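New to this. Explain these tokens.
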Amino acid sequence: QAISNEPSYNRNLMSGEFVRDVIKDLGPRLRAAGFQTKFVLPDDIRSSDAARVANIVMSDSVAAPFVGSLATHLYDEPISNVSSIQAVADAYNLPLWMTEFTQSASGSIDGISYAEGIMHPMINDYNVSMQMYLWGFFGNWVDSRETLISLNYGGAAYTGYTLNQMYYVMGQYSRHIPPGTVRVGVTSDQPT
């Protein structure tokens, strides 16, 4: 459970201290009520903001045990900034999730550029263990090159769906990664 969606976003501004204090108050209450729920945080709009908030929460010995994973979004800055939240996840041995991004974050809305520019680096370079492609399932008001499935409608009436190019790119990419797959590190002594 997240405390807030995008706490650094100007319409939803919440400080890292506020998020920490909510977890310090709510975490023990949940445990006392028998819930083992852990928080996902901070689900922030940018990885640099996510790292800042996560550091504040994780450096607090009361709040930290109630955190189960770190999450970020990928807007307004390059993918290389994911390294800032990855460093926090690594320091506290927590999984890192990418919970919201658009294909255009790769600098292109071409399916192959998306796979090469976002999906692969998140897994390979930043050890992201879960990716939520939120924009993949929007209605036909979003450019079909950015969505997996276009939900079609005429006025207020649903008229069906269209499987877009990205649906097939995602399917091809993910079909070789069955549930439960574990990544292993490999090296080669062969020149590239």
Observations:
- The CA atoms of residues 151 and 157 lie 11 Å apart.
- The first strand starts at residue 39 and ends at 44.
- The chain is about 35% helix and 20% strand.
